[in-house]
């Protein structure tokens, strides 16, 4: 997304002439016109999400609600824990931002490809950076990311596409001979090329692979961390860590399969025979995993911290207009996280109450069955019987030797009780 856009392509493919002229004053200290924008006339763009956010948001709302319905039904055996609730909220935020990020990217590529300013282009690129940080956090910390395999594959596929789209948008900022303006100008600056259309600074070529090669061939750590593109270093580190996180999450799924009879247990048994040394130093791997969690959270937090670029004027942000369609839909969509939180709490409480009631009912059935039971020499000890030997509905006792019906007792062997 965002690739193949330039002033030439806008004129040839979309019939839109992009004005990239800079009309300076006589003393060259101020700009009278930057493209079609006069001095002091730069318009805000609170509707940057445009109409495409409607479709994506509607899809997100229904998709997340359906997902929560399926997942919460499957997770009723969870115990109430702060960690489980936080993980579920992080995954929900990640799911929301997949679709809102997609809406921004589609708008930037099609609806406003030739008209969006470099300033607003930077804003969308930074929003997508924060989105990638949320996805990385979800894959890193969520223990039940692969609770439903098909849903996990869908999440990973869409999230990977968002990472590629973000890289494409960021890499376009490195194209063109003018140099894409990505830094907020100082307050003393009289004009900034950031107010020109973003298409003026792009060549229309796909630059992602070139920028990746350029970053890794920089030759020094300083050059790697101080490139032309704002946030490019964060993106590369996040993307590499994201690949590692996906592999680690798959490894956790395989390891948890040791408690079930299946292919995962057989694979772990084979691995234990091949490399038994790794299983003797489990604490070392636990420590590495702890560092991995800390690193993932730190990278995500670092990206969010450097993504902000809008500076307030008189303690106000001129881009903030919640009444516009482009911002109102994402704001309302954020409230879905609150509903998710309340639903998770409710599901956990209901699950615990049902579990307690089942235990109380089982104890009551045990007491009633024991009161009517009669010992038998052929009856095995209670510890040797299964927990299914109690059929209190038809009057068979827990010690399982008789059936009561119309005040008559019919003696039956314990194995005939259905145990």
Strand content: under 5%
The portion of residues assigned to helices is 55-70%
- By DSSP, the count of extended strands is 5
Question: How far from one another are the termini?
Answer: 63 Å
User: How many H/I helices?
Assistant: 12
Helix and strand string, N-terminal first? Answer: HEEEHHHHHHHHHHHEE
Low-confidence stretches: 49-79, 374-419
- Spatially, the strands of the biggest sheet line up as 1-2-3
Mean pLDDT, all residues: 68
Please tell me how large the radius of gyration is: 31 Å
Which class do the helix and strand fractions yield? mainly alpha
Describe the biggest sheet? 3 strands, antiparallel
In total, the number of domains comes to: 2
Q: What overall form do the CA principal axes indicate? A: elongated
InterPro entries: Elsinochrome_Biosynth-Asso (IPR053018)
Region (Disordered): 366-388
Transmembrane segments: 119-141, 153-171, 235-254, 284-308, 328-345
Biased composition (Low complexity): 378-388
Write a brief structural summary.
The chain has 419 residues and is mostly helical.
Give an overview of the whole structure.
This protein is mainly alpha-helical. The protein has two domains: 7-352, no CATH class; 378-419, no CATH class. It is 57% helix and 4% strand. It is built from twelve helices and five strands. Strands 1-2-3 form a three-stranded antiparallel sheet, with no helix packed on it. It has a two-stranded antiparallel sheet with strand order 4-5. Strand 4 (402-405) and strand 5 form a beta hairpin. Helix 4 runs antiparallel to helix 5 (149-171).
């Amino acid at each position: 997304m965002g690739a193949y856009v330039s002033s030439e392509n806008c004129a040839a493919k979309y019939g839109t002439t992009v004005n990239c002229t800079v009309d300076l004053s006589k003393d060259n200290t101020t700009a009278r016109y930057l493209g079609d924008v006069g001095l002091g006339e730069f318009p805000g763009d609170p509707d940057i999400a445009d109409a495409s956010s409607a479709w994506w948001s509607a899809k997100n709302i229904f998709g997340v609600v359906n997902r929560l319905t399926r997942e919460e039904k499957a997770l009723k055996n969870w115990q109430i824990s702060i960690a489980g609730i936080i993980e579920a909220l992080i995954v929900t935020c990640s799911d929301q931002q997949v679709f809102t990020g997609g809406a921004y990217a589609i708008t930037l590529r099609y609806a406003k490809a030739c008209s969006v300013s470099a300033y607003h282009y930077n804003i969308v690129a930074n929003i997508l950076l924060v989105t990638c940080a949320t996805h990385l956090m979800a894959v890193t910390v969520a223990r039940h990311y692969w609770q439903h395999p098909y849903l996990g594959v869908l999440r990973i596929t869409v999230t990977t596409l968002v990472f590629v789209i973000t890289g494409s948008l960021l890499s376009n900022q490195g194209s063109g001979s003018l140099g894409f303006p990505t830094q907020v100008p100082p307050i003393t600056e009289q004009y900034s090329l950031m107010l020109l259309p973003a298409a003026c600074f792009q060549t229309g070529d796909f630059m992602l692979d070139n920028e990746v090669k350029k970053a890794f061939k920089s030759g020094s750590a300083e050059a790697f961390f101080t490139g032309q593109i704002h946030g490019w270093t964060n993106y590369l580190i996040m993307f590499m860590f994201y690949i590692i996180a996906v592999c680690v999450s798959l490894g956790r799924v395989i390891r948890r399969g040791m408690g079930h009879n299946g292919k995962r247990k057989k694979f772990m048994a084979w691995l234990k025979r091949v490399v038994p040394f790794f299983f003797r130093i489990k604490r070392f791997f636990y420590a590495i995993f702890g560092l991995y969690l800390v690193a993932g959270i730190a990278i995500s937090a670092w990206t969010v911290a450097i993504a902000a670029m809008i500076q307030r004027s008189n303690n106000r942000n001129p881009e903030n207009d919640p009444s516009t369609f482009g911002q109102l839909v994402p704001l309302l969509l954020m409230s879905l996280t609150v509903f998710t939180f309340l639903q998770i709490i409710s599901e956990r409480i209901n699950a615990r109450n049902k579990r307690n009631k089942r235990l109380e009912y089982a104890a009551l059935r045990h007491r009633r069955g024991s009161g009517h039971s009669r010992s038998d020499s052929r009856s095995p000890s209670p510890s040797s019987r299964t927990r299914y030997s109690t059929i209190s509905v038809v009057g068979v006792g827990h010690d399982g030797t008789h059936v009561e019906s119309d005040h008559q007792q019919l003696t039956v062997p314990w194995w005939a009780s259905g145990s």
